[in-house]
């Protein structure tokens, strides 16, 4: 990868507010990260896996549809050497980890209600959640029960306007317990708002999407989704 390519990759996969929200909850897991097997679906730059590795995870696995994201993740995690088992794969959701279970699953997936388009220097895949924002979010939650170890949990960034009740239903149907552990109000840039599915914007205006002073804000929640068989919270 040339310096120009690296510069573009760093910009394209730079952490977002969603990343920070997941990171905050990850760090709150504290000593419970020690010895954990961690999966990050849509790993981007790999920064969440780096944090998990630094806090004592036994193994980390990053999956992303973008090869450049996997390159960035491998570069970031190469510093850990043999102290942490590192795996990465270019692939879709759980495809590369079929039949495997993890103590902690991290997910900050494209979930904006829009079709693929390049916005704010990001790759077209960055925000592409399909018309309702659930193109990836729905299948990810639906597959959690098959990939969480007993007592494991998932930390999921979830726009409140992309079907939070449906996510709760999917989790409960698998015997999982979802809990909102954080709520953040985030700004929606005009250039991104212009791509938003009109029906979603109309439905959520005044509910999870708010206008103040000529600006638009939306609610972002972080879900902790717990599997049975372990402690009530955490891994």
Automatic annotation (TrEMBL):
Pfam family, one: Methyltransf_25
Biological process per Gene Ontology, one example term: methylation
GO cellular component: eRF1 methyltransferase complex
SUPFAM superfamilies: S-adenosyl-L-methionine-dependent methyltransferases (SSF53335)
Molecular function per GO: protein methyltransferase activity; S-adenosylmethionine-dependent methyltransferase activity
Protein name per UniProt: Methyltransferase domain-containing protein
Domain spans labelled Methyltransferase: 38-108
Lineage: Bacteria, Pseudomonadati, Pseudomonadota, Alphaproteobacteria, Rhodobacterales
This protein's UniProt keywords: Methyltransferase, S-adenosyl-L-methionine, Transferase
């Amino acid at each position: 990868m040339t310096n120009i390519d690296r510069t573009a990759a760093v910009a394209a996969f730079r952490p977002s507010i969603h990343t920070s929200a997941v990171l905050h909850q990850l760090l709150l897991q504290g000593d419970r990260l020690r010895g954990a097997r961690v999966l990050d679906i849509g790993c981007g730059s790999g920064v969440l896996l780096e944090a998990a590795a630094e806090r004592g995870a036994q193994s980390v696995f990053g999956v992303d549809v973008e090869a450049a994201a996997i390159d960035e993740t491998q570069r970031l995690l190469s510093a850990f050497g043999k102290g942490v088992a590192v795996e990465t794969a270019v692939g879709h959701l759980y495809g590369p980890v079929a039949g495997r279970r993890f103590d902690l699953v991290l997910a900050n997936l494209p979930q904006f209600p829009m079709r693929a388009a390049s916005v704010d220097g990001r790759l077209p895949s960055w925000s592409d959640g399909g018309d309702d924002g659930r193109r990836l979010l729905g299948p990810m939650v639906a597959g959690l029960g098959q990939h969480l170890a007993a007592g494991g949990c998932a930390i999921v960034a979830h726009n409140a306007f992309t079907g939070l009740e449906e996510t709760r239903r999917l989790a409960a149907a698998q015997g999982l317990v979802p809990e909102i552990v954080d709520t953040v109000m985030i700004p929606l840039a005009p250039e991104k708002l212009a791509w938003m599915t009109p029906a979603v914007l109309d439905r959520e205006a005044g509910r999870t999407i708010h206008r103040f002073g000529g600006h638009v804000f939306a609610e972002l929640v972080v879900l902790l989704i717990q599997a049975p068989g372990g402690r009530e919270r955490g891994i």
